[in-house]
Amino acid sequence: MREAGEAGAPTISAAAALGGVALLIVLVHLPMLSFGFVSDDGWTITANGFLRQPADLWILFTPEAAARRVPDAFRPTLVLWDLLTYQLFGLAAGWHHALSIATHVGVAWAGQAWLGAMGAPLRLRAATMAIFGLLAVHAEAVAVISFREDLLAAGLGLAGALLASRWLRAPARGGGCGARARVFVLLRTISVGLLIALACGAKASAATLPLLWWLAEALAPWSRRRPLGQRAAWMAAMWVGVALWIAHTVALHGSLSPYGAEGNLRLFVSRAGLGPVLAMSTQIHLGYVQQMLIPWGLRPEYVDAGASWAAPATLLASAALLASLLYGLWCGWSGRRPLVCLAIVGAFVMALPTSNLAAMPNMRADRFLYFPSFPVCVGLAGLLLAAGLRFARRLGGAGEGAGRARWSWALAPIVAFVVMQGAVLQAQAQIYKSNAALWSSAALLVPGSARAQALAGEVLLAALDPAEVGSLEHQRTLATVRARCRSAMALDPLDELAHLCFARLAIAEQAWGRAQLHLERALALSPDRNHRILAALAQVALDAPGSSEQRREAALAAISRALREYPYAVEVWAVAGRIFHRLGDPALASEHYARAYELAPERWETTLWTAELALDVGLWRVAAALLAARAEIAESAPGVHRAALEGRLRDSARLFP
Q1: DSSP per-residue codes, 389-414
Q2: Where are the domains of the chain?
Q3: What is the SS3 assignment for 505?
Q4: Helix 76-89 crosses helix 179-202 at what angle (to 10 degrees)?
Q5: Is 453 helix (H, G, I), strand (E, B) or coil?
Q6: 391, 409 in Cβ contact below 8 A?
Q7: Residue 394 predicted with pLDDT over 70
Q8: Residue 595's pLDDT is what?
Q9: End-to-end CA gap in the chain
């Protein structure tokens, strides 16, 4: 990467240098290929029936998407991406993780290419790419498949910025100012606007990218500043893309917020008010700075809390952030350190969408730093390279050998920083290997999180072996789950997950009345994603105390509501089939089982329950043919369920040959 006037620097082509950095990023992330689906992957991918219905894509751009509770309907780019990747990979988690890694490398590549379009030297581009690609705080965004929304937003947004910067400097095609030239300019403008719209359609964090682009082009750290009118034209194209995203969101939800901020207890601002939330946000963002520079304190979960503006921590954080912002602005205004201005002010600009000015379900998350960290990485690359060069010059020496040695020392700070970040990234990513690892780690690292305690309990229940019911180990697990549920309830009695934890525990203990009470309370508190609660409530209602008619009406009311409100939730259709199966209506049961299989053919429950239905109506040959046709799916069922069904099948074949 020889630069002009740098004797002793090795001569490396741009393709070799950047390709080597890309390969390093891939190698560090390779362990993620063995990870499974975790966290929100269940809601957005594994149990999202909409991904299996490409014919319904049209509703994604109408209010019908919100009415039918399509997961992440306000992020159409992400839903389209998930639908495409599901059609390609199914539920092969390894392939999805491979695509996330490739997308992350693509984001880093697009970022350095944008810097190159503005005239940045190869050395800075490669260093920025390495730092961004291996920054430890990115472990969550890359390791969790459903969080690729951040990757998509950054990749598409940086691609739009790259094209805008390149075309800002490119001569018009078609010759002069004729009609052909105007057509080319129009097509280029549409391309940039569309990329920004798609980026915002993946995640709102891309909405402030036009400001970052304008800042970079106005500072012009590495090239001559372009005329104001030309820059304004390309920025306007970007804002058109942002406007398209805003129009889509408002059309779907009637407002800019898809969360229905007023009265939503999942949003902390609904409990504490905006003032305390913004006060705490100053502390959060100062913590973000520390996490990017020194990857200590990374968490899979954070507890939402408010703060007082008079608190010492808030005053110190506000002063530190304000001082850094003023310093960054001064660096840009004076023209002495434009790169410092780009790093500091650019980070502030890109952090605006996640600064809690607008209500969000999580006040803080590591993945929120994915896009805002890019300008920080540019500044860090410049700082570490400058420090390395100053250190190398002090070594002195003469001759070509000494020059090469000095160049090696010049790279020492950037290499040390990247190695440290990459090592922490690999260790942090292990938390997201499975749901068991994720929520047990979250409960340990963040014991004050009701969500972590409740979900850690549910993970333990899900792992129970039906063959060990009544054993000492089974009772110990139930006691541990009970302690988790109590902790969650004590930490936040208004969190529906605490009541859902108690309900799952009661179901495991066959305490149907207690389960019904907790499910009803969870449903009253939960603002959305109620398909799991309604499905469980419908099943429990058939066994809860009361007359047979009361139980029947309660079960049908719950499952009817679930089918009406969540028509793409696979679990709802499978449970509906189970309800009608138990109520003695095989025709309706078969119809709902068929729909459940259509929405998610990978679920073993649907296959086994359909076979049970065939056995119950005396069609054992149909059951045998079904299990033979879906042998691979049936094999994924727990051994005790599979063995019981196979035993019934053998008995039916013997008794009714």
Answers
A1: HHHHHHH---HHHHHHHHHHHHTHHH
A2: 20-431, 434-516, 528-602, 606-657
A3: helix
A4: 80
A5: helix
A6: yes
A7: yes
A8: 94
A9: 79
pLDDT tens-digit readout, 189-203: 999 999 999 999 999
Write out the two tokens for 443: 């409960």
Q: In residues, how long is the chain? A: 657
CA distance 161 to 213: 6
Residue 257, phi-psi category: left (phi > 0), alpha (psi -120 to 50), beta (remainder)? beta
Distance of alpha carbon 640 from alpha carbon 644, whole angstroms: 6
Phi, psi of 569 (to 5 degrees): -85, 115
d(Cα 296, Cα 287) in Å, to the nearest integer?
10
Q: CA 455, 427, 158: angle at the middle one, nearest 5?
A: 90
Tokens found for residue 181: 């030239």
- Are 627 and 641 contacting, i.e. CB atoms less than 8 angstroms apart? no
Q: In angstroms, rounded to a whole number, what is the distance separating the alpha carbons of residues 383 and 494?
A: 47
Q: Which residues pair with 48 in a beta bridge?
A: 569
At 397-452, the pLDDT tens digits run: 544 455 566 667 788 899 999 999 999 999 999 999 999 999 999 999 999 999 99
pLDDT at residue 643 in the model: 86
Q: Are 577 and 597 in contact (CB under 8 A)?
A: no
Cα(485)–Cα(33) distance, rounded to whole angstroms? Answer: 33
The tokens for 45 are 């991918």
State the architecture of 528-602 in CATH terms.
Alpha Horseshoe (1.25)
| φ, ψ for residue 48, nearest 5 deg | -95, 100
pTM of the model: 0.92
Tokens of 488: 């969650």
CB 649 within 8 A of CB 615: yes
Which of 31, 27, 8 shows the shortest CA–CA distance to 19?
A: 27
d(C-alpha 301, C-alpha 395), whole Å: 46
User: For residues 272 and 609, what is the distance between their CA atoms, to the nearest angstrom?
Assistant: 46
CB neighbourhood size of 478 (10 A): 17
pLDDT digits (tens, 9 = 90+) for 469-495: 778 888 999 999 999 999 999 999 999
**Can you give the pLDDT at residue 62?**
87
Ramachandran quadrant class, 37 (left: phi over 0; alpha: psi -120 to 50; beta: rest): beta
Planar angle of CA 425, 429, 430, nearest 5 degrees = 130
Question: Whose CA is closest to 150, among 85, 206, 209?
Answer: 206
Instruction: Find all residues with CB under 8 Å of 137, minimum gap 6, and list them.
Output: 291, 292, 295, 298, 366, 369, 373
Who's near 447: CB < 8 A, 6+ residues apart? Answer: 453, 487
